[in-house]
């Protein structure tokens, strides 16, 4: 189990974001290990009601949640309330070494996103997992065919549908990742190291194969 606190003194700071809230608010983050979403929703329903009664604003998805507070003192009090309920009422063990307090300027992660100041981006670990999936199916001994493009598109579509949100700032990252994918495909086409073959398979040809672009998901109207 992991519990962490994220908070900021700049309560009325303009232009800041916190998962749908437009003010910089301190937050509590909790992560239970290996809890199926349905079971987590049932188990943590009592915590939801407790936080409501305390007048605390929070966002929870299954076993991952943040609690937003006005200042450090309220954040520390919220952490005490959460720990007491989880350990005392629900008999769940918390992990003291994973409990910390951090400001928005220090950054924190939630639901696959990295929050840092006014920026909300795809988490580094999430990007690494995405690239690992692409690398696995684009080794140079594989064939560049319609079946492969379809598999790549499935990965691209799933990632873009989650991370190409109105509040995120992934456009530049997605554009660079698109280039990286195209380099992988050029390597496959010519069975050579990617550093010298980037221009031998033109972008128009790749587009004609039906290859999806992460960046283009930002261009589609809502």
TrEMBL record:
<comment type="similarity">
    <text>Belongs to the bacterial reverse transcriptase family.</text>
</comment>
<dbReference type="Pfam" id="PF00078">
    <property type="entry name" value="RVT_1"/>
</dbReference>
<protein>
    <submittedName>
        <fullName>Group II intron, maturase-specific domain</fullName>
    </submittedName>
</protein>
<dbReference type="InterPro" id="IPR013597">
    <property type="entry name" value="Mat_intron_G2"/>
</dbReference>
<dbReference type="InterPro" id="IPR000477">
    <property type="entry name" value="RT_dom"/>
</dbReference>
<dbReference type="Pfam" id="PF08388">
    <property type="entry name" value="GIIM"/>
</dbReference>
<feature type="domain" description="Reverse transcriptase">
    <location>
        <begin position="1"/>
        <end position="115"/>
    </location>
</feature>
<dbReference type="InterPro" id="IPR051083">
    <property type="entry name" value="GrpII_Intron_Splice-Mob/Def"/>
</dbReference>
<dbReference type="InterPro" id="IPR043502">
    <property type="entry name" value="DNA/RNA_pol_sf"/>
</dbReference>
């Amino acid at each position: 189990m992991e519990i962490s606190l994220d908070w900021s003194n700049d309560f009325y700071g303009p232009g800041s974001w916190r998962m749908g809230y437009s003010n910089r608010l301190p937050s509590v983050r909790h992560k239970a290990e290996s809890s199926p979403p349905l079971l987590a929703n049932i188990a943590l329903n009592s915590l939801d009601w407790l936080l409501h009664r305390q007048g605390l604003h929070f966002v929870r998805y299954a076993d991952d949640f943040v609690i937003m507070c006005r200042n450090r003192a309220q954040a520390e009090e919220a952490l005490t309330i959460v720990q007491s309920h989880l350990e005392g009422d629900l008999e769940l063990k918390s992990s003291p070494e994973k409990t910390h307090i951090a400001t928005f300027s220090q950054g924190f992660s939630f639901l696959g996103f990295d929050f840092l100041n006014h920026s909300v981006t795809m988490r580094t670990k999430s990007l690494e997992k995405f690239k690992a999936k692409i690398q696995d199916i684009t080794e140079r001994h594989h064939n560049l065919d319609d079946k492969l493009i379809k598999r790549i598109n499935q990965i691209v579509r799933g990632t873009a549908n989650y991370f190409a949100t109105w509040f995120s700032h992934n456009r530049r990252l997605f554009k660079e990742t698109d280039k990286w994918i195209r380099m992988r495909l050029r390597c496959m086409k010519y069975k050579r190291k990617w550093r010298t073959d980037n221009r031998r398979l033109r972008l128009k040809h790749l587009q004609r194969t039906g290859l999806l672009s992460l960046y283009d998901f930002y261009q589609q109207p809502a």
